[in-house]
Specification:
Chain A: It holds the Pfam family BPD_transp_1. Chain A: Keywords: Cell membrane, Membrane, Transmembrane, Transmembrane helix, Transport. Chain A: InterPro entries: BP-dependent_transpt_permease, MetI-like, MetI-like_sf. Chain A: It is found in: Cell membrane. Chain A: It comes from Thetidibacter halocola. The complex is a heterotetramer of chains A (277), B (513), C (610) and D (313). Chain A is 73% helix and 0% strand. In chain A, helix 7 packs parallel to helix 8. Chain B has three domains: 115 residues, Periplasmic binding protein-like II (D-Maltodextrin-Binding Protein, domain 2, 3-Layer(aba) Sandwich); 116 residues, Dipeptide-binding Protein, domain 1; 210 residues, Roll (Dipeptide-binding Protein, domain 3). Chain B has 15 helices and 20 strands. Chain C has two domains: 245 residues, Rossmann fold (3-Layer(aba) Sandwich), CATH 3.40.50; 227 residues, P-loop containing nucleotide triphosphate hydrolases (Rossmann fold, 3-Layer(aba) Sandwich). The longest helix of chain C has 18 residues. In chain D, helix 6 crosses helix 8. The N and C termini of chain D lie close together (10 Å). Classes of the chains: A mainly alpha (277), B alpha+beta (513), C alpha/beta (610), D mainly alpha (313). Chains in contact: A-B, A-C, A-D, B-D, C-D. At the A-D interface, helix 3, helix 4, helix 7 and helix 9 of A face helix 1, helix 6, helix 7, helix 10 and helix 11 of D.
């Protein structure tokens, strides 16, 4: 049985809808839901299972999980997006220069990147977080730095590939400066790869934020972030599994959406992945 | 270094040990049996195993069974003979003479002599050893050993708490001469159990020492599995993987108590908690601001919220049954309006005051408490946020660098009032990390040191408590309960809790077949 | 054995469909033809004609690519009687594939499994079909390798595909296909990816095997010259349909269909230019009668436009910890030539001979190691980057081989053509727009294409844009690096004609780099033959094609298939010398090139002792 | 041979850089060794004295030299907090981590490769959609979420498996496996999903290659074509991806070991970071990075074994 094309394409659509929804929640929840609803405690309804009053239940301090997960979206998405943005801002020029200039610059940069890649990203983020101290900005910096080597490596590979294309040589003979070649001829051609990698990185960054918060080094309480919520749920797992499930599902859905979207984007942007017919 | 419940070495306490669970009650009357391996789900990771160097309750809890101290306390906190058969204090309080118990065997097969005592004390007081309790011996002028079973310690000046402090393994432990090098990894003592091995972070194995001077223990072995996750520990107990666990998650105690298949040992108090202000932080220099914060906190709700009610609120940190406990003090009730009024009197309108609450993840319930208090602070118009710190960061930032605004800490119940009040609240106090400098407290704590009459002395300490409360130098919150959960087959649990409330003794514990 | 009148295979009303996201696509439709035992039938057509789909259908391999045989019968007179392959179950097909029908494919480099030894790949078919033991199969594999004349067959069996050259690999693939003595061999573009000398060898091999084994061959190709050399009968296909079928002689001599005629007209035939003074456009069917190109060849112009003197280009081979140079690829070795104004110099040679590197070195897209390149007496190699841009690229432009890679996919065509105009300050503001429009007119592209992106164009159209971009600076010289090699023959002819027309009107010079001797003969004034980085022979077109002196030029010319069935050159026992490696250790300095002038302007490299 | 030598030399250089980075980063950690040693007894004079005696006042380069010298000669020093000598401690913890990393990798490979091949063979059919969707969900779930779910299901709910602890396989192989199973699954499920995707992608590419067509044209049965001709070519790329995932696993164990109370390298490193036990942080971070690099080296060498093309170059 052949799966109809429309269905296969719907993967991207579903992904896009999921991602969009999560971003909308992240943007709009703080507008429509007063911030303190996420921290309001009800000592009479601690670890309450889902009820009419608390549709997704409450946590160990009687805080409403629905509001926490909705308002937590903002924190998680903000940290992940900012971290990925940071890794692009650092990784893009590094990768471009390394790939286009080549030679010694490339050797030195890539040796460094390879070395950094030997450190597990989470370990790197954790160590940086420990160096800088736990707070929002530092979490972003930690994840951002930890992700930079990956991005630089991928961009460098792409830049190397594109720099060897005849149209780049054509652009050189057309009298373009190196800067113009990088900006107008190489950059647009590696953007698809950057965009795809960014979606994937975003998914990983959300996981990394959750991981850091899970270890107590990310978001600080009482602010809600998904990772922090999962962390807090650890002690109540068997009694109140929903405290873990609610943020866990939020993370999973977001990452799933990003991955689906990223997959579809890659298929759409990469002619080599096209076909299957 | 030094994790949970540090400073336990300075303490001794006792309290009511309550046993829940009918089968245990019934079976505890039957005759003890020898044999079996008890698997204990220990709540913490043991660290440096050198009894002198380690300051952690977790390690002490285990080593309690390996070591013995020269004297000990009974359940009324009275110092009683232990490895010393008897002891005498000279009239002037400067000379202590210990007569050692003959025939006490170390695990290495040697017999204890006065040389071992001298070795142990010298090792502890030698700064190079890095002993946590070295200051106990600060006033010691000489240690003499006229014969194998006599030790004479001469002090340079009177040190009232000296003997009490020797009742703990930390300072009073006797190690075989020359064993200093190996104590950190393979401790040797003369306690009822021999140290067999430790798989770091995983488990510690103890084996019965048949030549124990107090008679051999019942259990063949004790394996302390180090399981820091409370729910994992509880699951282990329920599935029967573990015979017993300490520190039942607070929210589950009622549930376990109700479980007919498990028994619970609970005692009170384990330790006490208080909220600290940095007295060097401009707003907190004003007593009105500190008082305002006290009014923001509903102590009962906080106890319920952070510890699921497993404790008892108190305004005094003195041991509840001690003479110095100021029962007349009551905690300030929550009154947000009053707090706001006090703040504006001090010149802080809503939103003017910005504070960071540093809480350590080492005590997860501190994080919960901080979150609850934060809500109240915010209700009172204070812009507050939390910074979670690891134990190491808390120590370096709050304890050493005194770089904080508000924090929270717990201490073991210090039954020796001089140690409690002088160290914590005197300007010169060793544990005055809040930069408190109150002339009244300074005067009173100094006065207490030279007050000989116990009743009078107790009165002085009550006055200290009054000042601490009136000036809101800190906000004393509560005493916390200690708990153990066990299978019904574990017998002799009524003997397991050391009077200090922290250490567990397996000497008289046995497993029913 | 069926007699000659019973076809071995007869395809009747074949229709193959492919499911795609946009619905069903018809691969081929209503195709009928037959192959008699011992006969060679060539299916010829341009890309998209459905010729490969037809051959894959016979093997029922089309199904693995997502196709289905919707209609038609594929009757095959197998050993077990006639069956319809279109209806055969998978088990039967497995018994036929590789056993009664063998197949070889286009890419020898990817036709062999890179991680298995030759022996394993040669024997597994034998063991499957013939149930031979390991030793027997190995023995048979050895015989087969000998049959396809692979030297040192014992050693080859133990080797992996990457250790063999392209020609050798194709021989292995053929040997594999021949393993079970199939009655039909399907060869799908078997020589397209190969150099001309190796192509000649492989064609000869297939021809010999066919004759020795009485095997029928179904030969799929786009190359009319190969058809002329191989076919008994020809099937011409176009866009999934059969256009014309007939004996090879008749197809070439008297094509019935318009399409066949156009196709044949577009094919340059080696030798057609004999006696002609200069390049001449191809006479395309349907186009206007071509003007005979009066390429102004100033004979013996004292001022050559470009002089290349002792040009040497070596690429370092990096290795080791610090990526040091461990060896050098001697891509161009002491090459000298010049190009006059309005002249086309062709550089020919097989892959790896250094002809492309030579062209790129002149523009300094590859940095030469030594030598001189004088453009109007300015030494190009001495210029800094800024002057290089201002002086050299203002006068020399390049057109690349792959039309799909030579344009930036993310830039509108107008913007790409505009780049040199604004960068070199040739035009400003609205003037640029006008210039672009004029250039599009010049390369015969509609102006509406200016707003388009490259992917909206066909290969030939893209190559026109690339030429327009090169023309934008009004260059004196265009280096055309295999500029028409990737194009279908009819498109190729149009682009070639455009280039010749531009030369005659604008007086541009070309350095025309190509491996295709017939095309070179058509477009060039002078020809240089390259081999292993050296220019082995250079002279006028007539001198090279009619009086080749260097042995390599000889063998090259003799290997070229001619698109004329009357002039068959396929011979048995062709054996060309394999090209040695151009990689030398660091510090290796080869002897300089010394030439003998055998006739005026005709230089031949003196053979070195080694 | 020269490939091996080059690869080893390159490894040395990377190790050197790893050591430099590790040392530099840990040296900018707030709080210093002296303070950690003295703890609550800290006072400025004592701290200064201790710093002097520990050589903390020496230039960084001297300190680095001393540190790397110690590491090379096997003198890894003692943990500040745990007082244990670091080298045997790391060895013990690495054993635990290696157990779950290898275990999870085996589980992942054993399941992912057939699943990925199966999906590739049925590309764009329901089998592919099912396998691809499942693996997409798999890679989207955080591993600690897997861990929590596994604990809830197998330890709390069904009570089949223990939820915590490490048992040395040398002591009790069966117990060790039982204890390692859940953490390994938590690590392995995401990995499995990832490898399934990679295998599918690689195999899809391979199955479109000419040599696969040639193999079919030889009349080989589809099983041989896919599982021998196809898979033999996928082994290298899949192995490389799996090798790269070792790094990812060593990051994940920090979370998973802490969740399962499984005291391995991840747990130890986390404890060291929490306690600012700088010598232990340095050693464990260095060891993890070195092990990750070593894993990739091994994969590279294995690649040479499975792909003859690399042998010559």
């Amino acid at each position: 049985m052949r799966i109809p094309a429309a269905f296969r394409r719907s993967k991207g659509l579903i992904g896009a809808i999921l991602v969009l929804s999560v971003f909308l929640v992240a943007l709009l929840a703080p507008v429509f839901i007063p911030e303190d609803w996420a921290t309001q405690m009800d000592m009479r309804a601690r670890l309450s299972p889902p009820t009419w009053a608390h549709p997704l239940g409450t946590d160990q301090l009687g805080r409403d999980l629905m509001y926490r997960v909705l308002l937590g979206a903002q924190t998680s998405i903000y940290i992940a997006s900012a971290a990925v943005l940071m890794s692009i801002v650092i990784g893009l020029p590094l990768g471009l220069i390394s790939g286009y200039v080549g030679r010694t610059t490339d050797n030195v940069l890539m040796r460094l990147v390879d070395t950094l890649l030997s450190f597990p990203a989470l370990l790197l983020a954790l160590t940086i977080s420990a160096v800088l101290g736990p707070n929002l900005q530092n979490t972003i910096i930690a994840i951002g730095i930890a992700f930079t080597p990956f991005l630089a490596r991928i961009i460098r590979g792409e830049a190397l590939r594109v720099a060897q294309m005849p149209y780049v040589e054509g652009a050189r003979t057309a009298g373009n400066s190196d800067f113009r070649i990088i900006v107008h001829h190489i950059l647009p051609n590696i953007m698809p790869a950057v965009i795809v990698q960014s979606t994937i990185s975003l998914a990983f960054a959300i996981l990394a934020e959750a991981g850091l918060s899970f270890l107590g080094l990310g978001t600080q309480p009482p602010d809600a972030s998904w990772g922090l919520m999962i962390q807090a749920s650890r002690d109540y797992l068997d009694r109140a599994p929903w405290t873990a499930l609610v943020p866990g599902v939020a993370v999973a859905v977001t990452v799933l959406g990003l991955n689906m979207f990223g997959d579809a984007l890659r298929d759409a942007l990469d002619p080599r992945a096209k076909g299957g017919s | 270094m030094k994790r949970r419940d540090f400073l336990k070495t300075t303490t001794a306490l006792m309290g009511g040990t309550i046993l829940y669970g009918a089968p245990a009650m019934a079976a505890s009357h039957s005759a003890p049996v020898t044999g079996g391996t008890l698997i204990w789900g220990h709540s913490e990771t043991t660290q440096n195993l050198d009894m002198h160097q380690t300051g952690t309750a977790s390690t002490g809890r285990v080593l309690q069974n390996v070591h013995d101290s020269i004297v000990t306390v009974d359940k009324d906190l009275k110092v009683i003979p232990n490895l010393a058969e008897s002891f005498e204090q000279s009239e002037d309080g400067l000379v202590y003479t210990f007569k050692l118990r003959p025939g006490v065997m170390f695990h290495n097969g040697k017999t204890m002599t006065s040389a071992d005592v001298k070795f142990s004390f010298d090792r502890c007081r030698n700064p190079d050893t890095g002993a946590v309790n070295f200051e106990v011996f600060n006033n010691v002028a000489s240690i003499e050993t006229p014969d194998d079973l006599t030790v004479i310690i001469t002090l340079g000046q009177v040190n009232a708490p000296f003997l009490s402090r020797l009742a703990e393994n930390g300072a009073g432990v006797i190690m075989p001469e020359g064993s200093g090098e190996v104590q950190g990894t393979t401790p040797i003592g003369c306690g009822p159990f021999k140290f067999v091995r430790r798989e770091f972070g995983n488990e510690v194995e103890l084996e019965r020492f048949d030549d124990y001077w107090g008679g051999p223990a019942y259990l063949d072995k004790v394996i302390a599995r180090e399981i820091t996750e409370p729910t994992v520990r509880l699951t282990g107990l329920r599935t029967g993987e573990l015979h017993m666990i300490n520190d039942i998650p607070a929210d589950r105690i009622a549930e376990i108590e109700a479980d007919p298949n498990l028994q619970v040992v609970a005692w009170f108090p384990l330790n006490w908690d208080f909220v600290n202000f940095n007295h060097d932080y401009e707003p907190f220099k004003n007593p009105k601001v500190r008082e305002a914060f006290d009014y923001m906190i509903d102590k009962e709700v906080l106890l319920e919220g952070a510890l699921w009610g497993q404790g008892k609120t108190t305004a005094s940190p003195s041991y509840p049954t001690s003479a110095s406990y100021n029962a007349a003090l009551t905690q300030r009730p929550q009154d947000i309006e009053k707090a706001k009024a006090l703040l504006s009197e001090a010149g802080y309108g809503p939103g003017d005051l910005k504070v960071v609450f540093k809480a350590t993840t080492n005590y997860p319930y501190h994080i919960e408490a901080a979150q609850i208090m934060l809500e109240w602070f915010r209700m009172a118009g204070v812009d507050a946020s939390i910074e979670q710190l690891t134990w190491a960061d808390w120590l370096s930032q709050c304890w050493v660098d005194k770089d904080f605004q508000i924090t929270m800490m717990n201490f073991f119940t210090l039954w020796e009032p001089d140690f409690l009040y002088y160290s914590l609240w005197n300007t010169e106090g060793a544990f005055n990390y809040r930069k408190i400098s109150n002339p009244m407290v300074d005067e009173l704590t100094a006065k207490a040191r030279v007050t000989v009459d116990p009743a009078e002395r107790a009165e002085v300490y009550k006055q200290v408590q009054q000042v601490v409360h009136d000036e809101t130098l800190d906000v004393v919150l509560w005493f916390r309960n200690g708990t153990i959960g066990a299978q019904p087959t574990v017998m002799g649990l009524d003997t397991i809790v050391h009077p200090n409330g922290s250490n567990l003794r397996f000497h008289k514990v046995w497993l029913a077949a | 054995m069926p007699d000659g009148n019973t076809p071995l295979v007869s395809v009747e009303g074949l229709r193959v469909e492919f499911a795609s996201d946009g619905g069903t696509i018809v691969g081929v439709e209503n195709v009928s033809f037959s192959v008699a035992p011992g006969e060679t039938v060539c299916i010829v057509g341009e890309s998209g004609s459905g010729k490969s789909v037809t051959s894959l259908s016979l093997m029922r391999l089309v199904e693995f690519g997502g196709g289905t045989i919707a209609e038609g019968r594929l009757r095959f007179a197998g050993q077990g009687g006639e069956i319809d392959l279109a209806q055969a179950d998978p088990e039967t097909m497995r018994g036929i594939r590789g056993n009664e029908i063998g197949m070889i494919f286009q890419e020898p480099m990817t036709s062999l499994n890179p991680v298995f030894t030759i022996e394993r790949q040669m024997t597994d078919g034998l063991r499957a079909h013939r149930g031979l033991s390991g030793a027997q199969a190995r023995q048979r594999a050895l015989e087969l390798l000998q049959e396809v004349r692979i030297p040192e067959p014992e050693r080859r069996l133990k080797q992996y595909p990457h250790e063999l050259s392209g020609g050798m690999r194709q021989r292995v693939v053929i040997a594999m296909a021949m393993a079970c003595r199939p009655r039909l061999l399907i060869a799908d573009e078997p020589t397209t990816a190969l150099d001309v000398t190796i192509q000649a060898e492989i064609l000869a091999l297939i021809d010999r095997l066919k004759r020795e084994n009485g095997m029928a061959v179904l030969f799929i190709t786009h190359d009319m010259a190969v058809v002329a050399q191989m076919a008994d009968r020809v099937v011409v296909m176009y866009r999934g349909n059969l256009v014309e079928e007939g004996p090879v002689g008749r197809i070439f001599a008297a094509p019935q269909e318009e399409y066949t005629r156009a196709l044949l007209a577009a094919v340059p035939r080696l030798g057609d230019m004999r006696g002609k003074p200069g390049p001449e456009p191809l006479r395309l069917v349907g186009a206007d009668a071509p003007d005979s190109v009066q390429a102004a060849v100033p004979p013996g112009d004292p001022e050559p436009l470009l002089q290349v003197l002792h040009l040497t280009t070596r690429y370092p081979v990096k290795g080791g910890l610090f990526r040091r140079t461990v060896a050098n690829v001697h891509a161009v070795e002491d090459v000298s030539f010049d190009i006059a104004k309005g002249e086309t110099l062709a550089l020919v040679g097989e892959s790896g001979c250094g002809k492309s590197s030579c062209g790129r070195s002149i523009l300094r897209l590859a940095e030469p190691t030594s030598g001189q390149v004088l453009l109007d007496r300015t030494d190009v190699l001495a210029l800094n980057e800024r002057d290089l841009r201002r002086k050299v690229w203002r006068d020399i432009q390049m057109v690349f081989q792959d039309p799909f890679a030579s344009l930036n996919p993310y830039m509108r065509l107008a913007a790409q053509v505009a780049e040199p105009l604004s960068n070199f300050g040739i035009a400003k503001g609205s003037e640029i727009e006008d210039r672009i429009a004029a250039l599009f007119d010049r390369v015969e592209l509609p102006r509406s294409f200016m707003r388009r992106f490259p992917h909206e164009l066909s290969g030939g159209q893209r190559q026109r844009v690339a030429i327009a971009r090169a023309l934008a600076v009004s260059p004196k010289l265009i280096v055309a690096d295999e500029a028409v090699s990737a194009l279908d023959v009819s498109v190729q002819a149009q682009v070639l004609n455009l280039m010749m027309e531009l030369q005659s009107t604008l007086g541009i010079s070309y350095l025309f780099i190509s491996h295709d001797m017939a095309v070179v003969e058509r477009v060039s004034h002078r020809v240089g033959v390259m081999y292993l980085g050296r220019l082995v022979e250079i002279g006028s077109r007539a001198q090279i094609f009619e009086n080749p002196r260097h042995p390599y030029t000889h063998s090259l010319l003799s290997a070229v298939p001619i698109a004329d069935p009357a002039r068959r050159t396929v011979r048995d026992d062709l054996k060309f010398r394999p090209i040695p490696s151009p990689v030398f250790p660091v510090g290796h300095e080869p002897a300089p090139s010394v030439y003998d002038e055998v006739e005026p302007g005709h230089l031949v490299l003196r053979q070195q002792a080694s | 041979m020269s490939y091996l030598v080059n690869r080893l030399l390159s490894m040395m250089l990377t190790l050197f850089l790893i050591s430099v980075i590790t040392f530099t980063v840990t040296n900018i950690l707030p709080g210093d060794v002296a303070m950690m040693i003295m703890g609550t007894q800290s006072n400025p004079e004592a701290l200064a004295g201790l710093r002097q005696s520990l050589g903390l006042n020496d230039p960084l380069i001297v300190q680095y030299g001393r540190w790397i010298g110690g590491m090379l000669t096997g003198d890894w020093g003692n943990s500040l907090v745990f007082k244990e000598p670091i080298a045997p401690l790391l060895l013990q913890k690495m054993k635990a981590s290696a157990l779950i990393v290898l275990f999870s990798m085996s589980i992942a490979l054993v399941c992912a490769v057939p699943l990925g091949v199966w999906a590739a063979v049925h590309a764009n059919r329901w089998q592919d959609t099912a396998a691809s969707s499942a693996s997409l969900v798999g890679v989207s779930l955080p591993d600690f979420f897997w861990g929590i779910m596994l604990i809830l299901l197998f330890a709390r709910g069904l009570g089949w498996l223990p939820s915590s602890g490490f048992i040395d396989p040398a002591d009790d192989i069966w117990g060790a496996m039982r204890h390692a199973l859940l953490p390994s699954l938590a690590l392995g499920l995401g990995l499995m999903a990832h490898l399934t995707r990679m295998t599918r992608a690689t195999m899809t590419g391979i199955l479109n290659q000419e040599f696969i067509r040639v193999a079919r044209a030889k009349g080989l049965d589809e099983g041989t074509v896919v599982w021998r001709y196809g898979l033999a070519n996928a082994v290298g790329p899949v192995m490389t991806v799996a090798g790269l995932q070792v790094g990812y696993l060593f990051g994940s164990i920090i979370v998973i070991e802490s969740l399962f109370n499984f005291t391995g390298m991840g747990w130890l490193t986390y404890q060291a970071l929490l306690n600012r036990d700088i010598p232990l942080i340095q050693a464990s971070v260095f060891v993890i990075a070195a092990v990750v690099m070593l894993a990739n080296l091994i994969v590279d060498l294995l690649y040479v074994a499975v792909d003859p093309r690399i042998r010559l170059s």
